[in-house]
Design goal:
By secondary structure, the chain is an all-alpha fold. The protein folds into 2 domains: 91 residues; 40 residues, no CATH class. Helix content is 72%, strand content 0%. The protein contains 6 helices and no strands. Helix 1 runs antiparallel to helix 2. The radius of gyration is 16 Å and the shape is globular.
Length: 141
């Protein structure tokens, strides 16, 4: 599978992409070797993101969050399913925060409103999120 091109992306966007790719690697690992490799890749990505965040004084990720992700490496010992799920969710959340910044809360709030006002249908969370994202970005927030 070809990796997406990162040419022309900001450091925020490149970092967000790397975190999302690392989350996908953890989520799709088929065997122990792929999983250990995905954990190591995740650790390296988090080290780089933490260093960039400190160097450029980014508001996210916080140092403790990055340290949690870095400490969840193959050398840390047994990694249970709950910790892996937490890592995947963390990667995706921080990736979104890097991309959307302070608009993330507005998008989440609008998506929840759309879901609630639409009768709380199951399985349409991505649709509500994308609509909210388009609405927020079109208003220049």
């Amino acid at each position: 599978m070809a990796k997406p091109q990162s040419a022309g992306l900001t450091l925020f966007q490149s970092s967000a992409l790397a975190l999302a790719e690392a989350a996908n690697g953890l989520d799709t690992a088929d065997n122990a070797q792929q999983f250990v490799s995905a954990l190591e890749t995740n650790r390296r990505v988090w080290q780089a993101v933490r260093d960039l965040a400190e160097h450029y004084a980014w508001p996210v990720p916080e140092r403790g969050v990055a340290d949690f992700a870095i400490e969840s490496s193959p050398s840390a010992g047994r990694i249970d399913d709950q910790r892996v799920s937490a890592l995947i969710d963390l990667n995706r959340r921080i990736s979104a925060e890097l991309v959307y910044g302070s608009d993330l809360a507005s998008i989440r709030e609008r998506a929840c409103f759309l879901w609630d006002s639409g009768g709380r249908p199951q399985g349409q969370d991505m649709e509500h999120w994308l609509i909210a994202e388009m609405e927020i970005s079109s208003h220049g927030h």
